[in-house]
Amino acid sequence: MANLETTYLGLKLKNPVVVSSSGLTNSVEQIQKLAAAGAGAVVLKSLFEEQIIHEVNNEVRGGHGFDYPEAMDYVREYTRENSVSAYLKLIKDAKAAVDIPVIASINCFSADEWVNFAQEIENAGADALELNVFRVNTDKNSEPGTYEDIYFKIAETVSEVVSIPVSMKLGPYFSDLVHVVDRLSVSGAKGVVLFNRFYEPDIDIHTLSLTSAEVFSNPSDIRQSLRWVAIVSSKINKTDIAASTGIHDGTAVVKQLLAGASAAQVCSAVYKNGPEVITRMVEFIESWMQEHNFSSIKDFQGKMNYRNMKNPALYERAQFMKYFSKFE
After folding, report:
1. Which of 26, 49, 150, 315 supports an S-S bond with 108, CB 3.0-4.6 Å?
2. Does the keyword Flavoprotein apply (predicted)?
3. What burial class does residue 281 get, using C-beta atoms within 10 Å of its C-beta: 0-12 exposed, 13-18 middle, 19+ buried?
């Protein structure tokens, strides 16, 4: 029988299928269903500092404490503590309810809150912490290095104040992603998630208003993460990689493992098909391993990454043009 166990962020997972941070993981009941379906781990829905501030502003606009500065400060602090306490309770209750790793997630924009949230989350018993970081750089006068330094500083600051492993969930918008991941590992991050799926705007030409583009990923979206998982895993040996975006079936999980991922984060597939899709993914991985005589994940993990390919240039952009030249 094939052994599907893998190690991600130093945590032993019974299989590499991880449910990513989303509304799927915002309650103990849902987390139990995901665990029962076979998930190897879950990443809790992110604790957003921005959302907490939004809740505070709603309270203030509603007239609660608006007339008295001291009362307003109390409302702000109470709302923050209430939101954080609810999140910490989710961590504790989830840990008590399931026997798989529970990874917390936070998204902040102020330096103090990264540290405060991280310490409280560790004390609540989270097995690891995923830092959900994204900055839209719109300043034409800024240097790329300044933009990247934000990520390095966050990783270093949080890693210094907690003992649980820290991962960074990244977007693809870097001039040198390999360098960024290498610097993050030096800054204390034990892993990275490639890639985050961000809010993307769209324009309604009938109402002339800004709307949201498609929320869920499609199977074809795996192409970008597959390339970079293969490249980064071959260059940075000391950092675990969780592949994310476009993973909708067991085939996609196997592809990411072959590219060098330690785990595969799923979300859209579960929203569309229910927790049962996790069961089918795990069953496929096991049957595929048996078919190819692999007894463990380590037997084939990274087997087709950039370093292990006879022609690694196949992962590079130049090959895109060569591949399609036959259609000219």
Report:
1. 49
2. yes
3. buried
Three-state DSSP at 102 gives: strand
Q: Please enumerate in sequence order all residues whose Cβ is within 8 A of that of 198, keeping only pairs 6 or more positions apart, or say none.
A: 134, 171
CA-wise closest residue to 105 among 76, 77, 133, 147: 133
In a domain, 1, yes or no: no
* Signed CA dihedral, 117, 265, 243, 196: sign only: negative
Q: Provide the pairing of β-strand 11-13 with 6-8.
A: antiparallel
Residue-wise pLDDT tens digits, 17-64: 999 999 999 999 999 999 999 999 999 998 866 554 444 444 444 554
> Hey, is 105 helix, strand or coil?
strand
Among 8, 13, 25, 11, which residue's Cα sits nearest to residue 267? 25
Q: φ and ψ at 126, to 5 degrees?
A: -60, 145
pTM: 0.87
User: Is 268 part of a structural domain of the chain?
Assistant: yes
Query: Which CATH number covers residue 84?
Result: 3.20.20.70
Is 221 in a helix, a strand, or coil? helix
- Average of per-residue pLDDT across 149-164: 93
Give me the sign of the Cα torsion angle 222, 228, 231, 237.
negative
Look at residue 41 and give its three-state secondary structure. Answer: strand
Q: What local confidence, expressed as pLDDT, does residue 82 receive?
A: 64
Write the DSSP symbol of residue 44: P
322, two tokens: 């060569």
Q: Would residue 147 count as lying in a domain? A: yes
Mean predicted confidence (pLDDT) in 176-201:
91
- Say if 242 falls within a structural domain: yes
Report CA dihedral (68, 69, 75, 78) to the nearest 10 degrees: -130
Task: Convert the pLDDT of each residue in 205-245 to its tens digit.
Answer: 999 888 877 778 899 999 999 999 999 999 998 899 999 99
**Domain of residue 250, residue span:** 6-327
Which alpha helices (DSSP H) does the chain contain, by range? 28-36, 49-61, 69-97, 111-124, 144-161, 177-186, 222-235, 250-259, 268-273, 276-291, 318-324
